[in-house]
Design brief:
Helix content is 43%, strand content 16%. 41% of the residues are buried. By secondary structure, the protein is of the alpha/beta class. It has a single domain, classed as Alpha-Beta Barrel (TIM Barrel), CATH 3.20.20.60. Strands 1-2-3-4-5-6-7-8 form an 8-stranded parallel beta barrel, surrounded by 6 helices.
């Protein structure tokens, strides 16, 4: 564990990125780049559970904590990646209080939740550290609820108070789409939603996060109260790097 939850509780401003390629070597390099955390993306990424395990193993060499975005809030899906050693779970497209309750329940063993018990898993040192892992589950495992639907805006205050919700995380693409103003991140309706998310998190003593469309948005959203940021991702880094190299080389050829 890289103590991500402790850093969140201390109200540090943290920066991370998404891993969508499912590649352990790329993940290892990005894990050593200086990010505070990464989010391995099983919702939109091309990886699967096997590649997730390999990425988690590769991430051990770096300083970034590894969170996994699962496809939904089903207990079995959450349990598998936690057993692999994920430090936190991001839940996409949560819309209701009931869904949020099911999501956070999947994070913890009974009586705090409904996580299935298996001692011989990577997260607990294949059984060697299970008692310590169990005792520290609520201090160490990070629960992130995404704010991406119109419906969740109606119950943000309640969701934020749930034990197990450590971060409310705005997905700007999905949320702006749901609000009928896709990509208009300065639109008053979207800004109001941002402020509501930050206020709900602050009142509950939780962190608020967001995916940055560009780094230029960080100062204003930090001023608004956001402290948990992601910028870019492995797919974009590779794509942009390749495009820049082609542009540079052809610039010399074409004079």
């Amino acid at each position: 564990m890289k103590n991500l939850n402790q850093r969140i509780q201390k109200e540090e401003t943290l920066v991370g990125t998404f891993l969508s390629l499912g590649d352990s070597v790329v993940s290892e390099m990005i894990g050593q780049a200086g990010f505070d955390f990464v989010i391995i993306d099983l919702e939109h990424g091309v990886g699967n559970e096997q590649s997730t395990l390999q990425q988690l193993q590769a991430m051990e060499a770096g300083t970034a904590a590894a969170v996994v975005r699962v496809e939904g809030f089903e207990r079995q899906r959450v349990n598998r990646v936690l057993d692999m050693g994920a430090e936190g779970i991001m839940f996409p497209r949560i819309s209701t209080m009931e869904e949020a309750k099911k999501a956070v329940a999947a994070l913890y063993y009974p009586p705090d939740g409904v996580r299935g018990v298996a001692k011989l898993v990577r997260a607990s040192g294949y059984g060697q550290d299970f008692n310590q892992y169990l005792a520290r589950q609520k201090q160490d495992i990070v629960g992130i609820i995404q704010v991406e639907t119109k419906e969740i805006l109606e119950c943000l205050d309640e969701v934020a108070t749930l034990d197990g919700v450590d971060v409310l995380f705005v997905g700007p693409m999905d949320l702006s789409m749901a609000l009928g103003i896709f990509g208009q991140f300065d639109h008053p309706i979207f800004v109001d939603a941002l402020k509501s998310s930050a206020r709900a998190a602050r009142q509950a003593g939780k962190a608020c996060g967001i995916l940055l469309p560009t780094p230029a948005y960080l100062p204003a959203w930090h001023e608004m109260g956001y402290r948990f940021f992601t910028g870019g991702g492995d797919l974009g880094f590779v794509s942009a790097g390749a495009a820049n190299m082609v542009k540079s080389l052809k610039g010399f050829i074409q004079g």
